[in-house]
Amino acid sequence: MNAETLYFNSLLAMCLGALFAVLFRKNDRMANYIAHCMAIVGSISAVLCAIFVFKDGGVSLSLFEWGRVGLVTARLDPLAAFFLLLVGVIGALASLYAIGYCREFYGKRLWLMAAFFNAFLLTMILVFSVSHVVAFLLAWELMTIFSFALVIHKWEDATVRRAGYIYMVMTHVGTAFIVAAFLVLATAVGSLDFEALGHANLTDPMASIVFLLALIGFGTKAGMIPVHVWLPLAHPAAPSHVSALMSGVMIKSAVYGLSRFLLEFLGVGQAWWGELILVLAIVSCVLGVLYALMENDIKKLLAYSSVENVGIIFLGMGAGVVFMAKGLPLPAALAWGAAWLHTLNHAVFKSLLFLGAGAVVQKTHTNDIEKLGGLIKKMPRTAVAFLVGSAAISALPVLNGFVSEWLTFQALFQLQRAFASIFGKVMGAVLIALLGLTGALAAGCFVKAFGITFLGKARSEKAEAAGEVSPIMSMSMLVLAALCVVIGIFPQTILPIINYVLPVYWGAETAVLFDYQSLGLVVNTGVADGVMGVPAVIGLVLLGLATAVLLSRLSGKSHEQVGDTWTCGIDPTPHMQYTATGFSKPIRTAFMSILQPERHKVVSADTNSYYGRRLEYHLSIRYFLHDKLYRPLNSGIIRGAKFIRRLQSGHLQLYIGYVLAVTVVALIWSSR
Amino acid sequence: MNLLIILLMTTAFFLTRVTNMRTAVGIFLAQSVMIALASIIIGFETGEVHYYLAGLLTVVIKVAFIPYILFKIVKRLKNERETNSLLSPNLSSLAAAGTTVLAYGFIDQALPGVISRDALAAAIALVLIGLQIIMIRRQAVLQIVGLNIMENGLYLLGLSVTNGLPLILELGIFFDMLVAVAVLGILTYRLKISYASTDTTLLRKLKG
Q: H or E stretch including A661?
């Protein structure tokens, strides 16, 4: 067994999975089980392959000789292996979940979905491993197309088609930028191999152009604001296990691409690159979480929260670029390490949340959390998993989100060393404050998502009729939840992996960056070191709790009575509960200038004005980016097209006139 | 040979003034006869066999077949006249004159001192005048005639370059022409049926 065998084994398993899904298109059960089991096998191979790479060092595999394009290789270095690990872990659990989840799709082109699912995993593995420009772009494009096919699986629905269309347009615009970035680099080097691109030695204006192209291109895939618009549309449209993969892994391909560009191809860059990334990242964080908080569609809420988390990842990367430009390798390593760790953590808890949301949607057939409620009694296992995911994404201690967000904070504190001017120092502090705000808002957002969905009473008959999902589905969710807890309490389980990646770029001294002992984690950067002792804190808290329980037991018998909530003597009905819209009202008021909420209230006048009046209440918020950026852009393009359309008058003589004019011009030109 | 070129240009100028379709087709026929003659004369001068063959093909296709089709169409199109051209006959003659000057200027610039200067210039002028006719006229049949004039110009160009074009190319052009005129003839007739007129400006309605 070595990394090479496992890599090809993984690719083969997924190819077979896709093939079997097509072969068994008449038999949904067979297609479901075989295709998804093959996906699990392939994903586990990918995980093992990554582990072998970490253990034995990177390998470079020649895949095939491709005519004039050159030798296509797959380079499994620690960075690639880290992302392969991501695909593997999330892919395996999402596939396991899919076996249960896809029963819903029997008779609804399940074989097609299973085949595309395998192909999607396969192309993601290729994106993270191939080390050749053309092959990378090809894999990137196929990944987009397969995910598009999965997004529009329920194409009978007009909103799904529209989501697919916007997804396609946005990612293709992004891909155009990526292609441009690669072409500039490749022409400068004269080679299409990734290894060679690192020796480009571009001079400044060119390097900055490549950086901007790559940032826009990959930023679109990541869902960075202002190019995030496809995310909240595509994630709800896709089946849930696909959303989990898309949000958990696919958008991270952008992190991978930017890491390659910023660390290998462009070398040490300008400080303003990092500052630009920081600004975009913090805007993504704050706006993403605000929009998430306003959302009542559970999957849209999760999608906006992905925008926020991409912002946090980009904060780490931006800080890393600044540190590199200022010649501070240890803080740079810390910042990048934080970004990668958050990439992994976000993949774990976001896919967990999407899987949980999928379970809820499957049982209640609605995405609208205003119609849910009380599900904790009907779906206890899903509720536990979702609660763990919610707490993790809110960066609560003892869960994994806390670890990486804490490391990001540590990196941002170091920014004070990098910025010399007082303006820079203040801005660095503002970043930290805004990231704190983001964390608080995220907590509010997930209190809303969990509370309204799972607590209280059912707000509709659909929610009343819900039941627990199949054990196979809840198992994969609970495994992910366990991962959240393990990484949260013992970050030392995952930090060694980050430590394999860091020395590649910043040398051996990064080995001492994270000092992890059984009781806690120490960050050594020379100045302002951080210490985090989650296990120690947990031990103390448990000790305190145990003492409290013991004391209460000793003090005498407690008296317990179970009953409905007291509502002044009326039977409590679901309508008396806090609504999701009501819950987010204080935030809406506080951030009125950004969100610009619009209320529309209709009171029907025909009933008695003292009793039982009917109220209709509509609330919408305005997305100022749509108004200020996309709509003008859109109408500008349409106006331009209309202007050009005047050429097409439909007048036959005019067309001949064009030909005549061109001929005459060509004649004059040639006889010059 | 020079006489033929002068006659060709004269007929082309005449065509810019014609509004009657039957006359236009007649002029095209006369022009084709001249082209065939030119082909045979050059064949006689150089002694190359393929010029005779090309001349024979011209006679069969451009003197006999295409005019036959066009006459047949014109006969079916009663009450069709060219009205409201883009340019009045005087102006279009003037445009043709300008084109001729342009063609001579072009030849003098591009190939100064070439032997067959007049023939080359006339060929280019014919191509451009044909294009002008297509552009200025509204009647489909007149536009077809314009297309044929262009083709005559091209053929003349082929004749006047040294040794002429290879026969296979000329065969290709002839076949092209034949198909084009056949298809255009059918389309013109369909136009008459659909719109009760062969005025091509009506095709504007097709625009979405």
A: helix A652-670
The token duo for A255 is 């992190």
Q: In sequence order, which residues have a C-beta less than 8 Å from that of residue B56 and are 6 or more positions away? A: none
Q: Are A143 and A253 in contact (CB under 8 A)?
A: yes
Q: How far apart are CA A386 and CA B54, in angstroms?
A: 85
Residues 6+ apart with CB under 8 A from A40: A91, A92, A95, A96
Write out chain B residues lying below 8 Å of A660, CB-based.
Answer: 128, 131-132, 135
Give the contacts of A139 (CB within 8 A, at least 6 positions apart): A123, A126, A127, A130
Separation of alpha carbons B127 and B103, rounded Å:
10
Q: Are strands A59-66 and A70-76 parallel, antiparallel or unpaired?
A: antiparallel
The Cα of B200 is separated from the nearest Cα of chain A by a number of Å equal to: 7
The domain segmentation of chain A, as residue ranges, is 637-670
Read off the tokens for A526: 């020379």
Chain B residues inside the 8 Å CB shell of A645: none
A222-A228-A232 Cα angle (round to 5): 105
The residue count of chain A comes to 672
Q: What residue numbers bound the domain in which B173 lies?
A: 2-206
Residue pairs between chains A and B whose CB atoms are closer than 8 Å:
45
Q: What are phi and psi of B47, to 5 degrees?
A: 75, 15
Tokens standing for A179? 């292609």
Contact of A661 with chain B, judged by CB distance below 8 Å, is answered with no
Q: How far is the C-alpha of A336 from the C-alpha of A321, rounded, in Å?
A: 9
**How many Å apart are CA A406 and CA A402, to the nearest integer?**
6
In the prediction, which pLDDT does A244 show? 92
Is any Cβ of chain A less than 8 angstroms from the Cβ of B109?
Answer: yes
Is the ipTM, as predicted for this complex, more than 0.95?
Answer: no
For the segment B78-119, what is each residue's pLDDT rounded down to a tens digit?
777 777 777 788 888 898 999 899 888 888 887 787 778 888
B207–A649: do the CB atoms touch at under 8 Å? yes
| Range A137-151 average pLDDT | 93
Q: Which residues of A touch B102 (CB under 8 A)?
A: 664, 667
pLDDT digits (tens, 9 = 90+) for A556-583: 666 778 877 788 888 888 888 888 888 8
Contacts with A657 from chain B: Cβ below 8 Å = 135
Contact A488, A398 (CB under 8 A): yes
- Nearest 5°: phi and psi at B199? -75, 115
Q: Computed from CA positions of residues A424, A425, A426, A430, in that sequence, does the dihedral angle turn out positive or negative? A: positive
Q: Is A61 helix (H, G, I), strand (E, B) or coil?
A: strand
Q: Is A521 helix (H, G, I), strand (E, B) or coil?
A: strand
pLDDT tens digit sequence for B52-66: 888 888 888 888 888
